[in-house]
């Protein structure tokens, strides 16, 4: 439903002497989807006729949910997943630690209501939270802002 470019994970693609080099960035450290993304890229490029493929993991700068394209946000919402709002802005220095869950206003991707509540800070993956709409009672996942 979403391409790696839509998700903002695809950083760079280059070809040098017939070898394709692809750079990707995980949404979270230890993202379990990285191996699948890497394998899918290698297989797709082999099918496209590129026998030599290298996939590099780039960690700096760290991925931001702001890198998700508008098309990607639209596709998430159409699939019933609430796209992230703007990522928090940090200045240099330590990341502030809060002990409570972040206060979020997330619209329901099913009915559009802003009357939603958090169920769990972690959904099927660490980059998503589980929420429920109070208006239509539908559960949904929300891609967290980072």
Automatic annotation (TrEMBL):
Residues 98-144 form the PaaD zinc beta ribbon domain. Gene3D superfamilies: Fe-S cluster assembly (FSCA) (3.30.300.130). NCBIfam families: PA_CoA_Oxy4. It holds the Pfam family FeS_assembly_P. SUPFAM superfamilies: Fe-S cluster assembly (FSCA) domain-like. The gene is paaJ. It comes from Amycolatopsis cynarae. Residues 3-55 form the MIP18 family-like domain. InterPro entries: Fe-S_Maturation_MIP18, FSCA_dom_sf, MIP18-like, PaaD-like, Zn_ribbon_PaaD. This is Phenylacetate-CoA oxygenase subunit PaaJ.
